[in-house]
Task: inverse folding
């Protein structure tokens, strides 16, 4: 495993223009969805990050030809036969995104062995919602220590109430339902922008999906999908989580950043939450501007009550933004409660931020009180997951002195060349390869 780390010197305001990468959480299920039919697919704006590159290698091993095109982030995917049913264990056990291969391979071949997926160490990430949805459609599930054998002689549409609004379980159910007999109704479905992107991609290929953008989806099964005009083209949307991270970077360093290629609908709740931290974001043509000299003052609730930032299913505040919001709040005057409801280990990274000088009280695995504004000082820290890694970069860039961030393989899983892009904004960040 790589022992590379980031060396960062803080207190330099960031300035300039940045274009966010493609949405990682849309890219991964799309790579699974293209297995649903034979034909050519071109995906544009694919983020060339570790998780995506590993999933592309999985596709190669199960029968997909992949050719990079002239435009960066653009790839041609060609499939001549149904995918292999047995997924490569070593690769799939390293990334969570491999779970989205279960639905499409089951729909195509009637059988798939899904190794237990890997990914961020942020607490238990249950597979139950995926398996229960596939079981409702007619699949049989056998549980083994190293994975799941999923088989189905035929899939039949059902009225399914998901026991949680899981993004990847919704995506798996949609992809399996596309080839199911009759109509499938998904209630309590996830409706994040990347789920919408997947559904629109499938509709281009001939799928019949209604209710896109809501938590009530109806999928009428079809006998086949195809690539219109010989090739299906789809551009992955901008990563709104990365956009939120760049907003924080500008605000805490006192800089001015223009972020291009932004869908304002995707960041409405992020903007609302940031406004309560005293951070202004101005829309521009096709993007947003984070101006300098932000107030950075937490607005209390009525009667002076301590406000709360808590995550929720779309269109609520994204769970993947809670780590970034927490660090941002350390640079704002006032007190706020951070409530991460989804994962019981997500907030354990705060010990690193406390070591840098932040005033944070970790109440329990899900809640932390942040008291700002704190002066942060450079420290040697290690990233436990993708989002905590970005939060640590934000903390280091507004801290006094030098920081080292280790285990950056986690950051590379979710952010493409983040050190290179931050240097274009004036950040003093260097990748050290031991």
Result:
């Amino acid at each position: 495993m790589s022992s590379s780390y980031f060396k960062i010197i803080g207190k330099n305001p960031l300035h300039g223009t940045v274009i966010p990468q493609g949405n990682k959480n849309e890219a991964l299920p799309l790579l699974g969805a293209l297995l649903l039919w034979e034909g050519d697919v071109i995906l544009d704006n694919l983020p060339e990050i570790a998780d995506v590159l590993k999933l592309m290698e999985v596709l190669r091993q199960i029968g997909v030809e992949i050719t990079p095109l002239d435009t960066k982030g653009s790839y041609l995917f060609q499939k001549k036969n149904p995918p292999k049913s047995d997924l490569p264990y070593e690769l799939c056990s390293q990334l969570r995104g491999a779970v989205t291969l279960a639905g499409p391979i089951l729909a195509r071949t009637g059988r798939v062995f899904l190794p237990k997926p890997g990914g961020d160490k942020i607490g238990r990430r249950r597979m139950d919602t995926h398996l229960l949805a596939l079981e409702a459609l007619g699949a049989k599930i056998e549980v083994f220590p190293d994975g799941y054998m999923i088989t189905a002689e035929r899939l039949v549409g059902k009225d399914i109430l998901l026991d949680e609004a899981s993004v990847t379980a919704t995506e798996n159910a949609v992809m399996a339902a596309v080839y199911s007999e009759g109509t499938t109704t998904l209630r309590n479905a996830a409706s994040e922008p990347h789920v919408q992107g997947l559904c629109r991609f499938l509709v281009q290929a001939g799928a019949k999906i209604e209710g896109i953008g809501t938590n009530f989806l109806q999928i009428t099964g079809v006998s086949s999908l195809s690539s219109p005009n010989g090739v299906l083209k789809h551009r992955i949307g901008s990563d709104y989580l990365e956009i939120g991270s760049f907003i924080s970077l500008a605000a805490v360093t006192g800089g001015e950043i223009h972020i291009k290629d932004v869908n304002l609908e995707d960041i409405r709740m992020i903007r609302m939450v940031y406004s309560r931290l005293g951070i202004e974001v101005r829309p521009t043509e096709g993007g947003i501007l984070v101006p300098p000299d932000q107030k950075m003052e937490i607005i209390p609730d009525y009667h002076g009550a301590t406000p709360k930032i808590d995550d929720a299913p779309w269109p609520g505040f994204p769970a993947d933004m809670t780590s970034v919001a927490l660090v941002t709040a350390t640079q704002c005057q006032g007190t706020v409660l951070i409530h991460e409801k989804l994962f019981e280990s997500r907030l354990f990274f705060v010990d690193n931020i406390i070591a840098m000088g932040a005033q944070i009280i970790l109440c329990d695995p899900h809640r932390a009180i942040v008291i700002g504004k704190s002066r942060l000082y450079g420290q040697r820290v290690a990233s436990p997951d993708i989002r905590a890694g970005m939060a640590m970069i934000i903390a280091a860039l507004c801290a006094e002195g030098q920081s080292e961030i280790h285990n950056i393989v986690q950051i590379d899983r979710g952010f493409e060349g983040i050190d290179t892009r931050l240097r274009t904004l004036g950040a003093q960040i260097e990748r050290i390869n031991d």
